[in-house]
Amino acid sequence: MSALSYWLADARRGQEARFMKRFSPAYWTVNFPRPMMASVVTTAPDALRVDAVFYGSGDLAGLIWEAEDKWSHALLAYETDRDFRDCVLRFRWRSGGLRRLDETHGPTLTIEGRDAAGVPRSWYVRLWNYASGGAEDAVVTLDFANLESGFLLSDGEPVWAGDVDRMFISLVAPGYDAGSMAFAAGVEGWCELSGIRCDGAGSVLAVGDVVLPEHGLSMATGYDDCFNQTPERIVASIHALGYRGDINHYAGMSHYFRLEPVGGGLYVSLAGGVLNAPCVAWHADFARRAKALGLGVIWSLSYELFDAHCWNDWKQRAEDGAPALTGWSPPSTLLSPAHDGAMGYLRVVAGAFVSIGLAAGISIKFQVGEPWWWVMPGDGRICLYDDAARAVFGGLLVSIADVRGALSGPQKALLDKAGEVLAASTAALCAWVKGVAPGAVTHLLAYLPTVLDPAAPEAKRANMPLGWASPAFDVLQLEDYDWVTEGRERLTALGIELAVGRLGYPVEEQHYFSGFVLRGEDAGQWREIAAAADAAVKRGTAATFVWALPQVARDGFTCFRLDGEDDVQAFDDVAFPLGVGREASVAPAFSTQVVESVSGHERRSSDWADARLSFDAGPGVRSEADMAALIAFFRARRGAARGFRFSDPYDDRSCGIGEAPGPLDQRLGLGDGVRAEFPLQRFYGLGEEAQARRITRPVAGTVRVAVDGVEMVGGWSHVGLGVIAFDVAPVAGAVLTAGFRFDVPVRFAEDRLDINRATFAAGEAPSVPLVEIRE
Questions:
Q1: Would you tell me the crossing angle of helices 409-436 and 340-360 to the nearest 10 degrees?
Q2: Model confidence band, residue 399 (pLDDT cutoffs 50, 70, 90)
Q3: HEC letters along 357-405
Q4: What are the residue boundaries of the Non-contractile tail sheath N-terminal domain, all occurrences included (predicted)?
Q5: Residue 282 pLDDT > 60
Q6: CATH of 17-208, one of 2.60.40, 1.20.120, 2.60.120, 2.30.170
Q7: Fold of 218-561
Q8: What predicted TM-score, i.e. pTM, was given to this entire model?
Q9: CATH 2.60.120 segments of the chain
Q10: Are strands 246-250 and 37-44 parallel, antiparallel or unpaired?
Q11: Is 357's pLDDT higher than 70?
């Protein structure tokens, strides 16, 4: 099997590009304040539509074009061009349920940027001043070299559009007054821009046209993350980046619902339909576009809901009555599996999304995403005590102050009952889906670091109940991104083993989710994510997903497979049989792209974080016995097919050549109280700019480890591939160091070995080229 690899693209460097017209419909976005909703979809190559729902007199949505593409993957983004002066934009405007073009607060074009002197400012251009036709059906022509701001042209001033950051068209409800009055019910409105045309010397932009080969992975995304973009842009990006199969699409917890005003607040509602109009329009287009590109959709729904709009009696609660709130800001809450109203609401939501899929003619696949009884981070309180749960548990209800550690028999019995209630709720949800779409394929997504937390071994009674065992669902989906990004590979393997042992789904009925990188400054975590994804593919998992598209686009994660690269498993943990000494040659190499400008300046981009070594081990052949040993070793490795260990005569230890490794030689990392596994590394250079080399083949018995300068004689182990695993995660701030000797993982560079007895007898050493392999 070819090896999975990746790089993080920050810009196009010679990759394919094409040209597009500025203001192309697929690249517009929307934005708005909570609690209103809006979406934008493309309806033709030159047309788009915005749907919106307003809940108060101050709600305002913006239809946005940005000079800089902040949402696309670097290989797919359009070029940044802030000078709009050589552009004339024309479109037909039609609208309904909005302030009209001729009214105060009617659709206004806001241009944000800098004036000719470089001073930041904004201009407000009334579209009605540049429209011909009616107030809800007109042709608008905007010559950016000749625009005037102001409500009346006579009152305005010239707009300087030579340095624009973004522009947006404001959309408000008829009752808009920039105030805070709540409407009696949601007010829906829409607008369409059709016949969009941009002319002039500045009307053309370069845009990425990369289509990566299929690499065997699928994509996960969510509506809460991409609601502001067009489905055309989202689906096309997924396909262009090489992802195939199904898109696992999380409906989210904060943007899909309709709301109704009650007692000064807004709460999720079934009145008029469970999904708001912008959400329905967006997902209908999303499903159609996925089908057109041969991609399926797994509709994902969780028990999580935006807290501000959740009915109070629906919420899971701790024993003291505190609601189950996540760490997001603003927070979401978890719905109680024991509450009939909450679970009935989820069933109707699921049916609405499934109906959208049916209307688009795609096969129905549905995921119950991370259903659980919430455990309070930090103190381990499990939220089993809402009124509905108390009524269901009855006499089994006992106090569980902390679900971690050892529990009593009655406490375990309560967790078992909680598991039964959770399993019954998911079964009812899937049955509802199959009632709407009888052929639906059901999926369960379990987040292993929570439901199989090693610190809470009994929590699985409630959060991985035996009622989920095969064949309760068609597919078991597993994710463990905290373990992956923390470098805890052992827990991943153990968690999957425990989950499969408990629920019984064979690997061909499993999916794996790898990721995600929450913050851009942690982009280095993609290395562990890619490795975990590759491992899932190699163990035969039916589908492996990368979670999620916004992080992939933000960091430029670009995945591909290297045909001919050695498989990780094709390695024989044996040493090269000949001692070569310092007569062997070594050639470290990097890969650097150098672009030279006409002025002679250079832009250099390093493709590799570490050098790749090449050796010639021919000088180690000193006799006919050595020659025979080399040929036997070459045949046993099947030429270049299998890797092996090689001792670099110039660099084989954590310290200087000739010195003995000590436990303070090299940095392992800093403890954070959570992470327990750290890879061995050898650093070249000083400080933050030092080049780091991953060591995967330490010499057995030579590794020494220290914490805060004190050598540890126990409490850690080498678990393979240079990973040091501590029995207990080092405390936050602990300085971890190590010393060791190491070999280089290599393979024969060629499948042919040329050795001539005559030239050898004449004193000429054969050439035995070796090349380092990545692990």
A1: 30
A2: very high
A3: HHHHCCCCEEEEECCCCCECCCCCCECCCCHHHHHHHHHHCCCCCCCCC
A4: 20-208
A5: yes
A6: 2.60.120
A7: TIM Barrel (3.20.20)
A8: 0.78
A9: 17-208
A10: unpaired
A11: yes
